[in-house]
């Protein structure tokens, strides 16, 4: 009986080790792997709460993770760089966008009073499993924005600024945005929901 258990255990171990090794390999093929970038188109900037295509399907594919009922997009146009566009929220069973960009990063160089133009930076904007990422590089500054869900109710944006010069930079950093005012193709929010 003991010999049978030993053989059974060894056989189970022999079968499960490749599975465990495969799981470790999949984990090691991390989200940083370029092969997994932009597998799903996550770009777009909503213009109205009900932003649907001609067939009444959602126009965009927001990034939603960890069972959240809200999601974000990557900017499709340079005027929206520095923001994760949206968000989209699930209102009962239907999706609604509440902003074109709820929060957009603005950076002003205090020494020159010049606003940094994200469109002039060397940029890399992409989605990967578990994150939306934006990199911007100027000769003097590098910025990386990452959006990750940390729970089913919270999306966290981390912002890294790297001074690429040998002297200190004095920067003013601001986040700003606003809600959408258009409900659908025909009505404003006020017209569609007068008591809201």
UniProtKB/TrEMBL annotation:
The keyword Signal applies. Residues 1-21 form the signal peptide. InterPro entries: YgjK_N. Residues 41-196 form the Glucosidase YgjK N-terminal domain. Keywords: Signal. This is Glucosidase YgjK N-terminal domain-containing protein. The lineage of its organism: Bacteria, Pseudomonadati, Pseudomonadota, Gammaproteobacteria, Alteromonadales.
